[in-house]
Design brief:
The chain is α/β, with parallel strands linked by helices.
């Protein structure tokens, strides 16, 4: 997992509520045995028409959001079944930060386990970011996990809460296996005794 301290990126708005994991990565793509290659299937049913042509009505297909790495979305993002494939798809699509008023707990934990920073803000703050992303060309935010703050180069700034354990892990670029491997010497000593 990559370290995340601060990131500045293009903001894409996804003004939808209750986006579940099957909408993030449809079930037909979960048969893959690799952990990679899911980005091209993110939001598949919304991104593509039945004939496989990109849907011009879907916001993330708008060329002005190409390369977006910060997603601002409606409440209850990531609801539904627990599937780690959803953060894998979002990460490979290019998102490093997701901002909403609320996330499904398991989804949020899966994101943090995979280095995606999930930021919870008020409805008013999320609405402001959505409006800015739609109206201001090339709208960017800077997100600093160390200070738990974010802002643009205009007038917007906010602070956010973040789980201290996950914050420390993401700042160091450590998933659960990486955290365990920090104790490899002690583990080896223990195993050699038995």
């Amino acid at each position: 997992m990559e370290k995340f301290i601060e990131h500045t990126g293009l903001v894409a708005p996804l003004d939808r509520v209750n986006v579940d994991t099957d909408q993030i990565i449809p079930k037909q793509f979960l048969k893959r045995i690799e952990r990679t290659g899911f980005g091209k299937f993110a939001f598949y049913d919304w991104r593509y028409l039945e004939d496989g042509v990109p849907n011009p009505e879907f916001i993330l297909n708008d060329p002005k959001f190409n390369g977006a790495s910060i997603l601002v979305t409606g409440p209850n993002f990531g609801s539904g079944s627990s599937r780690e494939h959803a953060p894998w798809a979002l990460s490979e699509y290019g998102f490093k930060v997701i901002i909403s008023t609320s996330f499904a707990d398991i989804f949020r934990n899966n994101c943090m386990q995979n280095g995606i920073v999930t930021v919870v803000l008020s409805s008013k703050e999320v609405d402001k970011l959505m409006t800015n992303a739609m109206r201001i060309p090339n709208y960017k935010l800077s997100v600093n996990l160390e200070t738990q703050s974010l802002g643009d180069n205009l007038e917007f700034s906010a602070e956010f809460e973040f789980d201290p354990f996950r914050k420390d892990s993401i700042l160091k670029g450590l998933d659960d296996i990486g955290i365990t491997l920090q104790h490899e010497e002690e583990i080896s000593k223990y195993e050699s005794k038995n």
